[in-house]
Amino acid sequence: MTIQDLLQANYEKLLEQYTCNLEGVLTLQATLIRDILPSIQDELELSPEATEWAKEWLEDTYSIFRISRRNDFTRSFAMESVRKNLLWRLTNMWPLEILRPTPNLHCLPKRVRDRFGRPVIVIEVMAVQTASDTFRFHIIQTFERLRCHLRCLNDEENPGPRTPILQYVILLDLKSLSFRDFNIELLSWTLREIVPRFPGMLAGVFMLNYSWAHAGLWSVIKRVLPQSALSRVFFLTQDELVQYFTRSSLPKNYGGSLPTLTRLDNPLRSREAPRPQGTSQPYDLPPAYQPPAPTTSTSLSSTSLLNPFFGYPASSRLGLTSLQHGRRRKRDLARTLVILFWIRWRKHLIIGLLLAVCVFAVKLASRRKLFRFPNGALDWRALLFSWHHHRLLHLCH
C-alpha cells in the first residue's frame, strides 16, 4: 500500500467516524456545558473570565470529537477524560500568557492544503539544550495555537453540510538536528503529558532532509512512540514529497514553486492565536450545535458481552454507552459476582442442598424415637395423632 493509499484510508475512516458519532458527541457536549462546567466552576471558584475561557474550549465540537474518539466513543470515559483535561487546562494554561510562536514553526497559508484538504505545518527541528518550564510552556502554547487554528478554519467555512478539517499534516525538517543535541527527556514529556491533551490532530508526519545519523536517532525515538503514531510517520525523499503534494503546494525550500518559508504568510501569527486574558466574547458555536431530541436508550445487562462496563448495568443511547447509575456502585458489582457464582456452581449447589435436606430429615427422624415402630420405621399414624393433639390444644387456648 502506497503512502497516499494509507493516508486516504485513514482519512475516510476518520470522516466516517465523525459522521456516525456526531450526534452523540453533540449530546455529550451539551451535558458537559450544562452539568460539568458549573460543578468545576463551583469547585475551583472560577472567575467569570476563566469560566468563559473554559466554555470556549467545551464549545469546540472538533476537540470533543477527538477526545471521544480516543476513548472509543464510550460516553462515561469521554466525559471523565474531558473533565480531567479541563482541570489540567485551568491549572497549566490559565491565566493566559500570549507568547510569540517559535521561529522554526511555520503554518503554510490557508489556501495551501494536502491532497485531502488538510493544512500543512512545517517544523524545522532545532537543537534543544534545556527543558525549562518556559520552554515547556512554549510547547503547550504551540499545541493550543494549532487547536485554535483548526477551529477557525472550520468556522470560516460556509454554513451547512461540509467536510470538517480535523487534522494537520506535518513536514519535519531534520537538517539541523544531530544525535548529540537531541533531548529525549523533552520528547518523552511532550508525548506523555501534552499529546494526550490534544489528541488526534496529526494525520501524518513526513521526515525530510534525513541522513544516516538520523537512522540511529529514529531507533531511539520509536521506542517511546505508540504503534498508532509509528503508522503515521513516513521518511520521504524530495521527489516523493513533490509527487504527493505537487510543486504548487510546497515552498521553494522543499522543491516547490511557493516562496520560501520566511516570505510566506504564517496564519499562526495572526488572529488564530489564543485570546488574551479578560476577553470574554466567546467563539460562535458551530451551526450544527443543537441538543438533539431525546431518543430511546437500550439497557445492557451487567453480564452482557456487549457491555464495556462488564459487572455494572449500563445503557446505550445514540451509539454511546454509559453507566446506568452514573458511577460504578459496589453493590452492583457484588450482585454481578453472586449471579456469576450461581451460574457457574448452581448444579453443585442444588445437589448439595438436596443432600443436606435428606441428611437433616434422617437425623430428625432418628431423634424422635417416640414415633417409631420396633423395627425402626416411622409411625406416620403417631405423627398424625400428635399433630391433631397440638391442634386441639391450640384451639382450646
Task: Write a brief structural summary.
With 397 residues, this protein is of the alpha/beta class.
Describe what this molecule looks like in 3D.
The protein is of the alpha/beta class and 397 residues long. The protein has a domain at 1-96. The chain has eleven helices and eight strands. It has helices at 3-44, 48-58, 61-70, 75-92, 133-155, 184-194, 212-221, 227-230, 238-245, 330-367, 380-396; strands at residues 105-107, 120-124, 168-173, 202-208, 233-235, 298-300, 314-317, 320-323. Helix 5 (133-155) links the parallel strand 2 (120-124) and strand 3. Helix 1 (3-44) crosses helix 4 (75-92). The termini are far apart. Residues 271-296 have low confidence and may be disordered.
**Helix vs. strand class:** alpha/beta
Q: Residue ranges: pLDDT <50 for 5 or more in a row?
A: 271-296
Q: Give the biggest sheet.
A: 5 strands, mixed
Spatial shape: elongated
Order of helices and strands: HHHHEEHEHEHHEHEEEHH
Keywords:
397 residues, alpha/beta, 5-stranded mixed beta sheet, 3-stranded antiparallel beta sheet, 48% helix
Please describe the topology of this protein.
Elements: H1 3-44, H2 48-58, H3 61-70, H4 75-92, E1 105-107, E2 120-124, H5 133-155, E3 168-173, H6 184-194, E4 202-208, H7 212-221, H8 227-230, E5 233-235, H9 238-245, E6 298-300, E7 314-317, E8 320-323, H10 330-367, H11 380-396
Parallel strand pairs: 2-3, 3-4, 4-5
Antiparallel strand pairs: 1-2, 6-7, 7-8
